[in-house]
UniProtKB/TrEMBL annotation:
GO terms for biological process: mitochondrial respiratory chain complex IV assembly. It comes from the Eukaryota. GO terms for cellular component: mitochondrial inner membrane. The chain crosses the membrane at residues 140-159. Coiled coil: none annotated. It comes from Scleropages formosus. Disulfide bonds join C212-C216. This is Synthesis of cytochrome C oxidase 2.
């Protein structure tokens, strides 16, 4: 074999070593050992004949002008190397860094190392030693305690604010010239009653008449429900309901007795002469007016529709019109009672 053939064979060996390492990412030492073992088998094979025939093209990095596949047909050991090195799927390897290709074009003085190993996809199982922290139960307890503290604080501030507003309202109502007089009327049993007879007790007072078709019964029914609800609450004083007529001409003692028995058993009906009724009505600024009579000699009395709350000192505290429900009225009276007991502890 000529010297030129040996030089060319050595050059092919170097090029083949670099290209196979670059394309397959196999350990470079393994490729070199395989080449050293197999080159001796083809020492008499003229590679120059392979490289100079055929259509232009390259095969595994051979010089241009070689016909694809010809070296493997002429030299079976190259086909064996190709099958051995490419037996694993290409998807299991990573590409070599571009520096290997750059060195190839620069003369292959120092081939770039290719130490890339097959990559496998795995799933994270979390840290082996998780960072210690608070458990879910501890976080839940802390959250509940924190939320409960905020709620309790809000409720305390709200209650204090409501009580302060209630006391301010009581002070303002005391300045109103309402209910400062002293009425004297007959109850439904015929006894004379005055304002002084009800001192020391909470009073709910309503002005109406017994021939009222709907409004008066509804308001007295609401008043009765509130009084019953207050009686059932422990720690609160009882309330005395009063019904004062604005139609003294028809509502005598007997008529009042028949009417009040349909409501609360403690309800007291009060009547009197037209002058006495007018005086009591004016003291609480209650307006009333008798309407025209019909063919049956019946008439309707137009009057102020209010329920008055009187404290144990006989002073007017609050009033409730038709738009106030029995539950709203109950809550208002409860607040008034609690505020009064704080202001006058006995």
């Amino acid at each position: 074999m000529s010297n030129s053939t040996l030089v060319f064979l050595k050059s092919c060996e170097t090029r083949l070593y670099v290209i196979i390492s670059q394309r397959t990412c196999v350990d470079p030492q393994t490729v070199k050992k395989m080449l050293m073992l197999q080159v001796s088998r083809c020492i008499n094979f003229d590679f120059r004949h392979t490289m100079i025939h055929g259509a232009p093209g390259t095969l595994l990095g051979f010089a241009s002008g070689a016909r694809p596949g010809l070296p493997f047909r002429r030299c079976p050991w190259l086909l064996g190397v190709r099958k051995a090195l490419c037996s694993q799927p290409a998807s299991t390897y990573r590409r070599c860094p571009p520096s290997s290709r750059e060195l190839l074009h620069l003369g292959l003085k120092q081939p770039a190392p290719c130490l890339i190993h097959p990559s496998y996809r795995t799933f994270s199982q979390g840290p082996k030693n998780p960072t210690p922290g608070y458990t879910l139960r501890t976080r839940l307890v802390v959250t509940l305690l924190f939320g409960g503290g905020i709620l309790a604080t809000w409720w305390y501030v709200y209650a204090e604010k409501q009580q302060k507003m209630q006391m301010q309202r009581m002070e303002q109502l005391k300045k109103v010239a309402l209910g400062h007089g002293c009425f004297s009327l007959l109850d439904h049993t015929g006894q004379r009653r005055t304002k002084a007879d009800f001192l020391g007790r909470w009073v709910l007072m309503y002005f109406g008449f017994t021939h009222c078709p709907d409004i008066c019964p509804d308001e007295l029914e609401k008043l009765t429900n509130v009084v019953k609800a207050l009686d059932e609450e422990a720690g609160l004083p009882s309330v005395q309901p009063l019904f004062i007529t604005v139609d003294p001409e028809r509502d005598d003692v007997a008529a009042m007795a028949r009417y009040v028995k349909d409501f609360h058993p403690r309800l007291v009906g009060l009547t009197g002469t037209p002058e006495e009724v007018r005086e009591a009505s004016q003291d609480y600024r209650v307006y009333y007016s008798k309407g025209p009579k019909d063919e049956d000699n019946d008439y309707i009395v137009d009057h102020t529709i209010l329920i008055y709350l009187i404290n144990p000192d006989g002073l007017f505290l609050d009033y409730y019109n038709r738009t106030v429900s029995d539950m709203q009225m109950l809550q208002s009276i409860r607040n008034h009672m609690k505020a009064y007991m704080k202001m006058s502890p006995k």
